[in-house]
Amino acid sequence: MNLVGHDEAWAEWRSALTGERMHHGWLLAGKKGVGKASFAQAAAREFLGVGPQDGAHPDIITLTYGPKNKDEAKKRDEGKPFELARGIKVEQVREIQRRLNTRPTMGAHRVVIIDPADDMEVSASNALLKSLEEPPAGTFFMLVAHSPARLLPTIRSRCRTVRFPTVGRERMDELLRDLAPEADIATRDAAIAAASGSPGAALSFVNLDLGKVAQLMRRIVEEGDRDFSLRGQLAGAIGSKQDIPRLQAVLDLARAILAERIEDAGPDPRKLVSTHAQLVRLTGEQPTYNFDPGLLGMEIGTLLAQAGEASERGNG
Asked: Which pLDDT tens digit goes with each residue over 203-219?
């Protein structure tokens, strides 16, 4: 079953399958959460003639984040929860390359999926480039990339790019009604705003239950918060738990709400853009510094309040 927005990608892929020569490198580009990885797995199975009921296939090799270090690798091997590395390491690419020195297991072809390719370390990218320049016989590469510009230009130039579009607001609302019928209007609206056209991100936001947080953020921007009461409520709605994925989602939501304000800011949005940049900085720092959730909520609220004031001044 094709995911929303994948029709053109499938048409391009299937046209290549029936062509005279299949390109050995494919770059699947688009916003995180639009289904690129799902497409890669389904397309690889179709290419190798593997049905959805056939289980894992030895000639579909997926390379993604590995354990952070040897201690985390030991936890993985013992079946325990383990922490992932922040990027794909050169050792992982070289391990795959050693496997490529042998013939495919069950036929004449195999597919290597790298997800996300734009999170490869520089040395890993350079190692992969050698395989793209001289691909082993019967081997095809599918590179999933949320930010293709982060890839080496020489890697991009050796791949055929397929772009995956974002999904419009109305269609997103329909999807959430179907896939998350328990979500109320506020939660759906928050998810749609923060996801910026990514169905996967929208579903993640619904699961994080950020409807109340979104309502408070919008009130702060629109009404201001002279007595800090709304900021206190926002901190309470965010909670005191050091839940990094949820806190990152909160920051994404704040940026999305502020971005809406920038679009309507008139001829001089500089102060709003500056405030947005501060939210971007907080988003980048949160995973490293592990800010106290309550203080982070107050900081976000203050930035949104400043944005509301800047927007009012800009509109006269």
From this structure: 888 888 888 898 899 99
DSSP 8-class letter at 291 = -
Q: Residue 61 is encoded by which pair of tokens?
A: 């090799």
Task: Report how far residue 221's alpha carbon sits from residue 211's, in angstroms, rounded to the nearest whole number.
Answer: 16
**Structural domain spans, the chain:** 7-164, 210-314
Q: What is the pLDDT of residue 316?
A: 47
Neighbours of 149 (CB within 10 A): 9
**C-alpha distances in angstroms, 56 versus 40, 45, 64, 107, 157?**
14, 10, 16, 15, 31
pLDDT the model gives residue 51: 81
* pLDDT given for residue 313 in this prediction: 52
User: Phi and psi at residue 280, in whole multiples of 5°?
Assistant: -60, -40
| Residues in the chain with pLDDT values less than 50 | 1, 314, 316
What is the dotted CATH code of the domain comprising 7-164?
3.40.50.300
pLDDT of residue 311: 59
Q: What is the pTM of this model?
A: 0.75
**Per-residue tokens: 153:** 């230009």
DSSP H helices, 135-210, are 153-157, 169-179, 185-195, 199-208
Contact 68, 83 (CB under 8 A): yes
Amino acid at 175: L
Conformation bin of residue 243: beta by default, left when phi > 0, alpha when psi is -120 to 50 = beta
**Other beta carbons within 10 Å of 13:** 22
Take residue 249 and report the two structure tokens written for it.
Answer: 């989602």
**CB contact at 8 A, 102 and 134:** no
Q: Write the single-letter amino acid at 261.
A: R
